[in-house]
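Troubleshooting entry. Yesterday's outputs looked truncated, so today I'm pasting the complete records for two proteins to confirm everything comes through intact. If either block looks cut off, that's the bug. Protein one:
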Amino acid sequence: MNSLEETEKMALKNRWCFFVMNQENLNPEASEELEQCKSIFEDLATAHYLKEALGTIYRNAGSRYLADVTFEWWYELATESKTHEMKTMAKTIKKHNRGILAYWQTAITSASMEGFNKKTGWLTRQAYAYKDEEYLILKIHNLPQMELNK
């Protein structure tokens, strides 16, 4: 944003959320504004297309093999793009490809554990007011239970 001219900044102002949301969740007005922004900013259009394609892989790939082939296709598209951030993301996905593809074998994610860790971290930051460590441990045990195998 800092390198844009004022007119370009105004075109993007308050529209960044359209790029983050899934295409199917946008109302018709927001979808139209997104298309206008993408026609002005080629790099953002490319990044949005690649983001949507990545989400489609997760929603539609029914097997590890199909996911692997589709990720390879996505990796090539992202690597050929002119967007530095997408190239970096492609390298990261390629590097962790084995772990990402494991989802299609096990259908298990670490999302519930990540959520629990986040709650525990928040609680620990609040621990300055606690008198002792035992009370903190009791508070951790009192956190809402994680939903497993969701």
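Protein two, checking that the full record survives here as well:
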Amino acid sequence: MHGHVVPGAQARYPDRQLQVPLDEGTQLARCLRCDAWVHTPTPPADAPTSELPRPLRGKALDELVVIRAIALERGLHVLFFLAMGVLLVLVEVGLPALQRDAQVILQGLDQTRSGHQFLARWLNDLVNLDGGHVWVLALIAFGYAALEAVEAVFLWRGKRWAEYLTVVATAAFLPLEIYEIAEKASLLKVGALLVNLVILAYLIWAKRLFGVRGGLAALDRELAADVDWEDIHAHAPTVG
């Protein structure tokens, strides 16, 4: 999503396989992220060279893609909790009027001896609803939205501490999710639990959190061994 990394578009590297001349003033320059050849103007001969960049590629890039997918999933949580918090605030603001209307409807149901028991129970709950509890729930919803927003933003930026935060926050919710499923199971609840378990397993195992599989040191060694930058800089793929 950041585009090509093409050092050969800014300077000439005669000792590296980063450029292929075409005609006067144009060339193909190699992207060090995806190995594509990009059509660019030929840089001037006196353009200063610099240390060649080392963009993410291989396993490191694959892992970032997965982490950003998790960040997007956290972003959906943010939208859900924000919507819930706003809804609760609106309910609290209009609660006195809602309770008066609910009382009127209940009286009408009593007079008609209607069999709408579910509606009657719901209206009774609304009449007896404590406004203080609504504010607490709204604050909790906004708090969760803030937490998930922090996770989403910094997971997207590839911060390792955000991976730890995601694991701790997700694990803390698991008992509540399991309790909800035990009370009343649904495909949505079971699906959400499975997604969270997969996220936990991936972060702990693949990202080697909490010292698993050698921790960060072992992860750094694995990623360093996955990409040989000297070979990549010196040997280009075939120009298509």
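Both blocks look complete. Sanity check on protein two: The helical segments are 59-93, 95-112, 117-127, 131-156, 160-183, 187-206, 215-226, 229-234.
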